[in-house]
Amino acid sequence: MKTVEQAWHDTALPAEQRVAALMDEMTLEEKAAQLGSFWIRPAEASQDGESNVAPMANTFGAGPDFEDAIKDGLGHITRAFGTIPLAPAEGRERLVELQEQVIAANRLGIPAIAHEECLTGFTTLGATCYPASIAWGATFNPELIGGMARRIGADMRKMGVHQGLSPVLDVARDYRWGRVEETMGEDPHLVGELAVAYVRGLQDSGVHATLKHFAGYAASQAGRNHAPVSMGPRALEDIVFPPFERAVREAGVKSVMNSYADVDGEAPAGSHRLLTEVLRGRWGFKGTVVADYWSVSFLHSMHEVAEDEDAAGRLSLEAGMDVELPETTAFANLAQAVRAGALEQEVLDTAVRRVLAQKLELGLLDPGWNPRKAWLGDDVELDSADNRAHARKMAEESIVLLRNEQILPLENPARVAVIGPSASQPRTHLGCYSFTNHVYSRFAEQQDYGVPMASILEALQQAPALAGSQIEYARGVDFTDLDGSGIAQAVEAARNAEVAVVTVGDLAGLFGRGTSGEGCDVVDLRLPGRQGDLVEAVLATGTPTVLVLVTGRPYSLGQFADRTAAIVQCFMPGVEGGPALASVLTGEVNPSGKLPAQIPDHIGGQPGTYLASKLAWHAEGVTNLDPRPLYPFGYGSSYTSFEISGLELSETGIATDGSLRISATATNTGARSGAEVVQLYLADAVSQVVRPRRWLAGFAKVPLEAGESKRVTFTLHADRTSFTGLSGKRIVEPGTFTALVGSSSEDLAVQADFEITGTVREVAEGRVMDTPVDIA
Questions:
Q1: pTM value > 0.85
Q2: Cα–Cα distance between 282 and 289 in angstroms, integer?
Q3: Are strands 709-717 and 659-668 parallel, antiparallel or unpaired?
Q4: Which helix (DSSP H) or strand (DSSP E) does residue 678 occupy?
Q5: CA neighbours within 13 Å on the CB side: how many for 368?
Q6: pLDDT tens digits along 513-557
Q7: Alpha-carbon distance 725 to 732, whole Å?
Q8: With contact defined as beta carbons under 8 Å apart, do 214 and 244 qualify?
Q9: What crossing angle do the helices spanning 345-361 and 309-319 adopt, rounded to 10°?
């Protein structure tokens, strides 16, 4: 390994001086190399010949070999773990060797940043697969999300990974979009709260978080992946931006990744407005912007705003991009562009300074840094008992009880028919970006998941409450196969049972290889394949039926709901999903999850979310399509009962920069302990622009013993009523507002009005975006 004793090695110097000293040593080619990356993609990726784990990956031919690519240095090593199955020790050794090659090859001995996906856990073989992001939203519990992220970060850090490409902060806008499972729901406040917790947790463990996908990606036309986004600046500012802004301002996130989808014709990878004016100028972001995979090249090939790849690279760099991922294609000739006068050197230098500053912060520029000595001990366990316990807790708290006609919990029924494809396939518990579904499923035998998992069927067979029950399983149908020959067997099993547990839902995959996940978009919101026919057939038997949905998106349930005995919504609950679901069904665990996205009534008329204006919500006399959901945002039942009462406001009138306290009492009026999510919504009586009927302004998950009461107090600043006015500026407008407190966006037991007085206030950057809560 090279050792260059220069000023940039002096850890006593300020970071800016160290970076400047290193920049003085570098040639143009060495600088440009810091903005590139390399992905060692296997020639034969899997048994089925499919190699895409990123969009259109197969359309990009092989570039230079690794040795040639690193001769002047390298910015990032792409996915050394999450590309092919490698045992943890083998993967760590592979990364060590790659780093040693990078250090040895470049004159100054600068290491690369190693990045990896980590949305549902460290994306590598043998690591704990936590619930999908949509399940995080269902917990309404930021503390759980922060604890998960700390564990993920610790596992990544000890394996030599520096940067995680998570979390996804896209606010769900159309349930047909395949990546709804990667969102935390349809409300920007919920997403923002959980985003701050995730970023802090991951970065507390020494791994830099990366916000995705900036911005507007989830609002694509017709819910189609990579499709254009037809969204005005008001929706962008008031719905899409807030989670990103909070993660930048409150959590100090270190990296941001752009969106693929153009917004009103503006491609984010080439948008100076988004990457520089908004992100850095307005919000004060100091980290690195990294390209979503091949998105810089897409400026030429897909968006057609650049005449060739070199032009695309220059356009993106000038817009504010710092690092091209996953490979150096459009950034390959930046040094030549500077020499030819086609690119200003300061533009190049600015990006290089940011990348070097990040490497310095990670310790990679310290004297004597050695990848073999950088690990935190020899431990390569990535699926520890502690990880598992946390994954189990998250799964339990994410499960949502939607309907219960006195049939749950199950208590030793004589005969139970367990029916449906989700019951025997543990992969349905995992998101698209779990290693099992993202990579391993294309290499391994069908029953090998790369990490131990129990199916729902196995967990029910082992449940103490069903020890005396005879359990019969019938798969009925597959997730997508249109063969319905197994439905008759399922019907027979249901007829012979005292209760039928029908498990249906999603199997995540990529680019059409699943029913949910990246590139797995749907035309409408009916259950995939013939699963709807299976549910209908079982319901027709008259046997009391518990409908269990294990999904990555909400599906339409209106045609089934009134005929079911119970409905349980389980959003991709992770490796502990089977036991967690069995615990809820049998009453060992009292469900406390709430819907982070509405459950539609019918299959086609409701791609919108609860953040709807009165006009969007109203149907009578306007349209034959009722847009209202079957179950609203924030809804979730329990095996106990709760009451919210005693609303008090500390003030009935505040100034446009004032604040007030909003208090209510949550009481467990049932016979067993449980947890209620107390939710605060606001409504604006009259506004200069059309606004949502109501919006979530605060929430608190409150554990309560039977008969116990707790007082929940929200501190609400006037900024929480702000919006983008007719002028295009953010304002707080005087007027009457209603504070509504309850257990869902439609079940709001108590409400009271307050006034904001004075003149319209233009809100400066750095507004109050959180709502502190006290529980006593």
A1: yes
A2: 15
A3: antiparallel
A4: strand 674-684
A5: 3
A6: 999 999 999 999 999 999 999 999 999 999 999 999 999 999 999
A7: 9
A8: yes
A9: 70
